[in-house]
Design brief:
single chain; mainly alpha; 3 helices; flat
Length: 93
Amino acid sequence: MFYLILCVMLVVFYLFAAPPTVKNTMNLVFVAFFVVAVLGLATLLVLGVLRISVDFWVCLFLFLVGIAAVRDLHRMEKGPRKSRKQKQPVTHS
Protein backbone atom coordinates (compact mmCIF):
# COMPACT_ATOMS: atom_id res chain seq x y z
CA MET A 1 0.00 0.00 0.00
CA PHE A 2 2.87 2.35 0.79
CA TYR A 3 4.37 1.88 -2.67
CA LEU A 4 1.00 2.48 -4.32
CA ILE A 5 0.63 5.79 -2.47
CA LEU A 6 4.21 6.71 -3.37
CA CYS A 7 3.54 5.88 -7.02
CA VAL A 8 0.40 8.03 -7.09
CA MET A 9 2.31 10.92 -5.50
CA LEU A 10 5.08 10.65 -8.10
CA VAL A 11 2.59 10.60 -10.96
CA VAL A 12 0.74 13.66 -9.60
CA PHE A 13 4.06 15.48 -9.13
CA TYR A 14 5.11 14.55 -12.66
CA LEU A 15 1.86 15.74 -14.21
CA PHE A 16 1.30 18.98 -12.31
CA ALA A 17 4.42 20.25 -10.56
CA ALA A 18 7.59 19.02 -12.28
CA PRO A 19 9.57 21.56 -14.31
CA PRO A 20 10.77 20.46 -17.77
CA THR A 21 14.33 19.75 -16.59
CA VAL A 22 13.05 17.41 -13.89
CA LYS A 23 10.65 15.76 -16.35
CA ASN A 24 13.60 14.74 -18.54
CA THR A 25 15.27 13.08 -15.56
CA MET A 26 12.05 11.39 -14.50
CA ASN A 27 11.55 10.10 -18.05
CA LEU A 28 14.92 8.35 -17.80
CA VAL A 29 13.99 6.89 -14.42
CA PHE A 30 10.65 5.62 -15.76
CA VAL A 31 12.33 4.04 -18.78
CA ALA A 32 14.91 2.34 -16.54
CA PHE A 33 12.13 1.07 -14.26
CA PHE A 34 10.19 -0.25 -17.25
CA VAL A 35 13.24 -2.06 -18.67
CA VAL A 36 14.02 -3.65 -15.30
CA ALA A 37 10.37 -4.70 -14.87
CA VAL A 38 10.28 -6.28 -18.33
CA LEU A 39 13.56 -8.10 -17.73
CA GLY A 40 12.31 -9.29 -14.34
CA LEU A 41 9.08 -10.61 -15.84
CA ALA A 42 11.00 -12.30 -18.65
CA THR A 43 13.25 -13.94 -16.08
CA LEU A 44 10.25 -15.17 -14.11
CA LEU A 45 8.77 -16.55 -17.33
CA VAL A 46 11.96 -18.46 -18.14
CA LEU A 47 12.14 -19.79 -14.58
CA GLY A 48 8.54 -20.93 -14.81
CA VAL A 49 9.15 -22.68 -18.12
CA LEU A 50 12.30 -24.47 -16.96
CA ARG A 51 10.66 -25.57 -13.68
CA ILE A 52 13.97 -25.29 -11.84
CA SER A 53 13.94 -24.00 -8.29
CA VAL A 54 14.37 -20.25 -7.94
CA ASP A 55 16.93 -20.88 -5.22
CA PHE A 56 19.21 -22.50 -7.79
CA TRP A 57 19.07 -19.46 -10.06
CA VAL A 58 19.62 -17.02 -7.20
CA CYS A 59 22.64 -19.00 -6.01
CA LEU A 60 24.04 -19.17 -9.55
CA PHE A 61 23.57 -15.42 -10.05
CA LEU A 62 25.22 -14.57 -6.72
CA PHE A 63 28.08 -16.95 -7.49
CA LEU A 64 28.72 -15.21 -10.83
CA VAL A 65 28.55 -11.78 -9.18
CA GLY A 66 31.01 -12.97 -6.54
CA ILE A 67 33.45 -14.22 -9.18
CA ALA A 68 33.24 -10.87 -11.00
CA ALA A 69 33.84 -9.00 -7.72
CA VAL A 70 36.90 -11.09 -6.81
CA ARG A 71 38.29 -10.63 -10.34
CA ASP A 72 37.87 -6.86 -10.03
CA LEU A 73 39.58 -6.89 -6.64
CA HIS A 74 42.59 -8.70 -8.10
CA ARG A 75 42.80 -6.17 -10.93
CA MET A 76 43.00 -3.23 -8.53
CA GLU A 77 46.31 -1.49 -7.99
CA LYS A 78 48.43 -2.81 -5.18
CA GLY A 79 49.73 -0.44 -2.51
CA PRO A 80 49.20 3.26 -2.00
CA ARG A 81 49.45 5.68 -4.87
CA LYS A 82 52.47 7.92 -5.06
CA SER A 83 51.48 11.54 -4.65
CA ARG A 84 52.66 13.97 -7.25
CA LYS A 85 55.06 16.65 -6.10
CA GLN A 86 53.55 20.07 -6.50
CA LYS A 87 55.54 22.59 -8.47
CA GLN A 88 56.96 25.49 -6.53
CA PRO A 89 55.60 28.83 -7.73
CA VAL A 90 58.10 30.85 -9.72
CA THR A 91 58.92 34.16 -8.08
CA HIS A 92 60.30 36.98 -10.16
CA SER A 93 62.68 39.28 -8.33
